[in-house]
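Here is one chain, start to finish.
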Amino acid sequence: MYAKLDNPKILSDVVGVISELVTEVKLRFDEKGMSIIAIDPANVALVSFKLPKESFSEYKSSSEMLGVNLDNLKAVLRRTKPGSVLIMESQESILKLDIIDKIKRSFLLALIEIESEDKTIPSLEFLSQIQMNPQDLVDAVEDCLIVSDSCSFIAEPDKFIIEASGLNSARAEFSSDEVKIISGKSKAKYSLEYLQKFVKASKLADKVFINFSSDHPVKLEFKKDNFDLAFILAPRVENED
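Its structure:
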């Protein structure tokens, strides 16, 4: 595998977000590009990241799976600067990372064995889809964190609500004028601890899609032209309150 990335900040930022959930991942390189699918240790959340072949200025790879420690990878990627070029190359049991700016710096990361089955994204059908500004989702999640450790997503044909309640309550209501709604009626509750981690990806994306159905997992998709980052989160059940 040989891959040259002219804007490594994208990869650095995404790896930083994913490292909030998992510490080890398998980097998959194939004819389509680079991808990651991982499940958190509690088996509650899944993360999927795709960086297509077209995002790289040079790319050569057969099908390879490279196990890496995310903290180590994140530390190297943070050494990139605006204008840096990143070259990734697999060499037997090593992932070689070259950072090229004024000088060329090289890092060698030992590949690790990750004892888990290759993950796939589950096939899910959703009754409701909301497209909104990522920062609006961040604000709503932060509002709910003030009063509870979980929040409800409520979708109707003409409005979308994010609310939380305990001794106190918080509520953000969006009309179809502010967000794009494709929905029947859906309501489900999710952990704010996980949502708080997911929305850190908001700074990377132009738009976020919230896909869910009543008492079913939610899929959050953070999208930009050159990558796709998605999270799937299991619902909270009412008797856990």
